[in-house]
Prior knowledge:
Layout: H1 17-24, H2 36-52, H3 60-65, H4 72-92, E1 98-100, H5 106-112, E2 119-124, H6 131-146, E3 151-156, H7 157-160, E4 171-176, E5 179-185, H8 197-206, H9 215-218
Parallel strand pairs: 1-3, 2-3
Antiparallel strand pairs: 2-4, 4-5
Amino acid sequence: MDQRVHVPIDDPNADTEWNDILRKHGVIPEKPPSPTPIIEEALQEAIKQAHENRLEGKDLDELDVLEDDEDEAFLEKYRKQRVAELSTITKASIYNQVYPLQKPDYARNVTEASRKAYVFVHLTSSLGTNVESQLLTDLWRDLARKFGEIKFCEMRADLCIEGYPERNTPTILIYRNGDIQKQLVTLRELGGQSTTLEDLQRLLVDVGAVKDNDYRTSRSRPAESAPKHLRSSTKTTAEDDDDDDDWD
């Protein structure tokens, strides 16, 4: 029986003549390609995209200020884009306020209305001491004025759902096409008592109520200079709010 010969290998990944011989004879596997060129190419593409999209999020007044610094044809392209966006938003902005709800009209004003537009419902606290609910009421008004194509509604939670736990308020219900698309129980997932308008705007984008490149949100969103697959996130996501325990 042939005896297996032990071949000394210091570092199988080292670029040495000995390792080349071993790879040639299949003793050690081929060295994997270096990821450096792929990373460098991705970074260069990110820089290119950042330069090409440098005017994203700027309104018409801000574009006018840049007349001396940017190519006129390039600026005109973004002006036409902004005018088209403004026209679309103006036509779709039919709500522009927070609508108080009553239980008998809930199906018509929420479920049926969601077949035409996104409907966001804030189930409020019945207590004047709930800081998160008070905060969301104020932010709800700001969102309604800013995103008139979305219907924002409000109703006391215990009047909407008999016996609904006070500890679960405020609750956000997001409707589209006659169904609840997402629910958030309290503002824990958004930032708690520190929740901002920007946090809620990101929610609008996440659920698809507003486009990711909408200039109304991009002005308050931090710039991202690298593609997602090169960035690591340390933020952990909250547990799914569909847990039945939240309704007990």
